[in-house]
Automatic annotation (TrEMBL):
Gene3D superfamilies: P-loop containing nucleotide triphosphate hydrolases (3.40.50.300)
UvrD-like helicase C-terminal domain: residues covered: 648-699
Lineage of the organism: Bacteria, Thermotogati, Deinococcota, Deinococci, Deinococcales
InterPro entries: NERD, P-loop_NTPase, UvrD-like_helicase_C
Domain NERD stretches: 14-131
Protein name: DNA helicase
Pfam families: NERD (PF08378), UvrD_C_2 (PF13538)
């Protein structure tokens, strides 16, 4: 079945004809494995943006470029060769050369594919489409036109058979032959997100001694050679620009951060005049965000645009900000001429009580909105705001909301300029009705401070809960809501364990978190059983939704679980495990990560640091300025953005680990979760820690109660399929906006 990707629909002149062809091709290509892009962004090596009206990738035809001219036959005065003289100018031009346009785009495609040796024999065609002209009318006019030089697709040739004939009679700009499965997969990868991802560099060091099987570093090297398959949903998220709000829910490890960075880069390249904010919660993501945006700007501009060139338009901002590093809240406040709140101000606004980092951001947003409305200030400074880690920017306390809306999101929404020509989705202050381009991504299982899920209803109130109902989409089919089901980071068995332990699926006293059947399916599981009867339910993670190869390459369990008598004993075992991974399995220290569980993990971090340093290993405590320094409270010795240091093993708490990952993750302090095993927040900590792994887990605790040990062991025995009994969950994780069976969870 053909797949269609509409990158941006603005209602501009000329779109109607192009979209009419897209709509006609949906049934015409339904029996083919064709991928159709509308306005795929092509950048030449000279930095020029070219956008084929339609770009088709097909295993039989290769690459087809279609240039659409939505003009009637009566407007064409004469044709000679490639030049068409018009009686009425078309976008200000009286002479057009549509086939030459299409061929120039085809040449850019040839240039792009030069970097892919496997694509050297892919045929490329170019033709011109006239949706308002029929074949009979064109043939009747042929006596006065010298039109034979232009391959044409006419309005009545959009059925399956006639379209196929039109393609086959079009001469090739570059000749070639039909593609085999491998070549077609390579073609899709070359034009897709997967083919442009930074290639992981895995150079296995020599083995110190002969081994019977593969070392872990050797498995990683093999996995790095795996080509990322074309993911239609990822392409839609990364390459489309919605004309209003868009929500992206995703399973952990699905690549939400990468896609938002790519989306911001694509927005800038297409609209370099836009002011764009890319917002996130955890400061440890600053470097990663900047690297991602820089990569996608370079990748999609043929190296002509870098982040340093675009940073005056793409603002990468921590949610709150500080005096030495601007954040989103601080940027908005200073733009309005308001003094940004600091920690002392927030405490005073909270009745003298301390608050969580999320609470601090939300209180600041609430106070800013109050002052804006009191003074009647204009907040509109951005054209698009993209929010990552959206689950960390909501608060459960109704007192921190602003007019029944989540304060941070309402601040972000109102900081946006209206999208001209679009229908409103949300009510506006002062009675205005506009649409605004607010895009947020979240994983509901990763919130460590709030139990509120950032659905449309939760963010903007009951009145606007219909925003995402019924799979509503924008013009051209751009979705208002996406749910990502493929996890590229974490192997299937680890992801299943993360969900099972995080939600308490095998917990003796009933579920911690519950999902409706549709929601389990939407995040990539198959479900057996009837949830309404509260009978046994079996969820299974199919390999296609967890394509990480480590689970197929390593026959041994990917999670190693041990309990210890004392913390000293536990961190000594940690040091042995790290050294074994380093010296025997070939995993350098910076490929490993230590996560310490608990609400107050500082003492565990100190113990882990001391044990690892006693063994002579280089250790970096996340948030420090220097390596091999224990956790410090001296602000002069801190780097709030720091998470990694080359050649060092990072030791961190769960909050800083969010958004980061490693090949091997050592999780210590499981007893902290076991002591509060009924807490949603503590279970979420365990979920976040487990889902940081790209390959393997060492999980341990001290004095873990037998009941919790048995739960963990039962989960680990289940592999990629787990059976549990339904019960009323403490927290319903189902998205109430778009799940018809939400009440059954």
């Amino acid at each position: 079945m053909a797949r269609f990707i509409v990158t941006e629909a603005t209602g501009a002149p000329g779109e109607a004809g192009e979209l009419s062809i897209v709509d006609a091709l949906r049934p015409a290509l339904s029996g083919r494995d064709t991928v159709v892009f509308w306005r795929y962004p092509l950048n030449t090596r000279q930095g020029q943006l070219r956008e084929p009206d339609l770009l088709l990738l097909d295993p039989e035809w290769g690459v087809v470029v279609i240039e659409v001219k939505n003009i009637p036959l009566s407007q064409i005065e004469s044709i000679q060769g490639y030049a068409w003289r018009l009686s009425i100018p078309y976008f200000g031009r009286s002479i057009i050369e549509p086939y030459d346009q299409a061929k120039q785009q085809a040449r850019v495609l040839i240039e792009r594919m030069r970097d892919h040796a496997a694509l050297s024999s892919v045929p490329i065609r170019a033709l011109v489409a006239l949706p308002r002209v029929t074949r009979d009318a064109w043939d009747a006019a042929g006596q006065s036109f010298l039109f034979n030089d232009t391959p044409l697709l006419l309005g009545d040739e959009l059925t399956a058979a006639r379209f196929e004939r039109a393609i086959e009679r079009t001469p090739c700009v570059r000749s070639g032959s039909a593609l085999d499965d491998e070549t077609f997969a390579a073609l899709l990868s070359a034009f897709g997100t997967g083919g442009s991802l930074p290639a992981p560099v895995v150079v296995p060091p020599p083995a110190p001694a002969p081994m019977a099987g593969l070392r872990k570093i050797d498995m990683l090297a093999r996995a790095a050679e795996q080509r990322r398959e074309f993911d239609l949903q990822q392409e839609k998220i990364a390459k489309t620009i919605p004309p209003g709000v868009q929500r992206i829910r995703g399973i952990a490890g699905s690549g939400k951060t990468v896609l938002l960075a790519q989306k911001a880069a694509n927005m800038h390249l297409r609209h370099p005049e836009w002011d764009i904010a890319l917002v996130f919660f955890c400061r440890a993501l600053y470097e990663q965000m900047q690297m991602q945006v820089d990569h996608w700007l370079r990748a999609h501009s043929n190296g002509q645009v870098r982040y340093v060139d675009a940073r005056h338009r793409i603002r990468i901002l921590h949610a709150w900000g500080s005096r030495d590093q601007p954040g989103f809240y601080r940027t908005v406040a200073e733009h309005l001429g308001l003094t940004p709140m600091n920690v002392t101000d927030v405490k005073a606004a909270n009745g003298g009580r301390n608050t969580s980092p999320t609470g601090g951001v939300v209180i600041s947003a609430r106070e800013l909105l109050t002052e804006v409305d009191r003074q009647g200030l204009d907040m509109e400074i951005f054209d698009a705001v993209l929010i990552d880690e959206g689950q960390d920017l909501v608060d459960d306390d109704p007192a921190l909301q602003y007019e029944d809306r989540q304060s941070f999101y309402w601040m972000a929404y109102r900081s946006l300029r209206p999208v001209q020509g679009e229908e409103p989705l949300l009510g506006e202050p002062n009675g205005k009705q506009t649409a605004r381009r607010l895009i947020w991504a979240y994983d509901e299982a990763q919130s460590l401070d709030s139990l509120t899920i950032p659905t449309g209803r939760a963010l903007f109130g009951e009145k606007f809960s219909q925003i995402f109902t019924g799979g509503v989409s924008y013009r051209g089919g751009i979705a208002k809501s996406e749910v990502m089901r493929v996890c590229y980071r974490t192997p299937g068995p680890i992801l299943v364990a993360a969900h099972a332990l995080g939600m308490g699926l095998l917990r003796q006293d009933g579920l911690i978190g519950g999902l409706a059947k549709n929601t389990w399916s939407s995040i990539g599981y198959t479900v057996e059983g009837d949830m309404r009867t509260r009978g046994p339910i079996t969820i299974t993670r199919p390999p296609e939704h967890s394509p990480n190869l480590i689970a197929r390459l390593d026959p041994s369990p990917l999670i190693d679980f041990h309990t210890h008598t004392t913390r000293h004993e536990e961190v000594a075992a940690l040091a042995r495990n790290v050294r074994h991974a380093l010296e025997v399995e070939g995993l350098s220290l910076d490929r490993q990560l230590v996560i310490c569980l608990g609400r107050y993990a500082d003492r565990t971090i100190e113990a882990a640091f001391a044990a690892l340093r006693r063994e002579g290993m280089d250790v970096y405590v996340a948030g420090n300025l220097h390596g091999n320094v224990p956790p410090t409270q001296n602000w002069r010795e801190k780097n709030p953005n720091g998470f990694r240091m080359p050649g060092h093993l990072t030791v961190t708490n769960v909050t800083r680990a969010k958004g980061n990952e490693a090949d091997m993750v050592h999780i210590i302090g499981l007893d902290e979760v076991a002591a509060q095993e009924g807490s949603v927040t503590m279970r979420n900590q365990l979920f976040v820690a487990l889902s940081r792994s790209r390959g393997w887990i060492h999980l341990s605790g001290t004095g873990v109660p037998m009941s919790f040990q048995e739960e963990v062991a039962a989960v680990l025995r289940s592999g990629e399929s787990i059976t549990f009994t339904m019960s009323r969950a403490k927290r319903n994780l189902t998205d109430q906006d778009d799940e018809p069976d939400a009440a059954t969870a």
